[in-house]
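Chapter summary example.
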Amino acid sequence: MWSMTLFGTETPLGYVVAAHVALSVGLGLMFTPLLTGALGSLRPSLYSYGSAVVGTVQQVAGAAGTATFIAVMSAVAASQLGDGADAVVAEAGGIHTAFMLGAVIATLAFFATFLVRRSEAGVEPGAVPVH
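The structure predicted for these 131 residues follows.
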């Protein structure tokens, strides 16, 4: 995410594509263990509920995050346009600020992961252990 804070009006297209691919691969590598850890702590009878909650939270958070970043980008661009900046420069300033906000949130989330404790695997009440 931090690499996207370097985008400007003269950023080569190859750099934009490489930064986006790196972010997408990182997200893909992150979600599988994250969801496995989250759902693995549930009892088997609750898997469907856990999966539904995770999916819902993921969709709502994605929509809220997108709306927040667009609002920040638009507000900064409008402010810079009001100060007399060129439209392209103002839009680039708004995009830069939105990516900075995203990078700060991602950094805070990274450090918050160290506060997550490992949970025990969920076991059905009255279940007989297999091993």
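To summarize the output: The mean pLDDT is 86.
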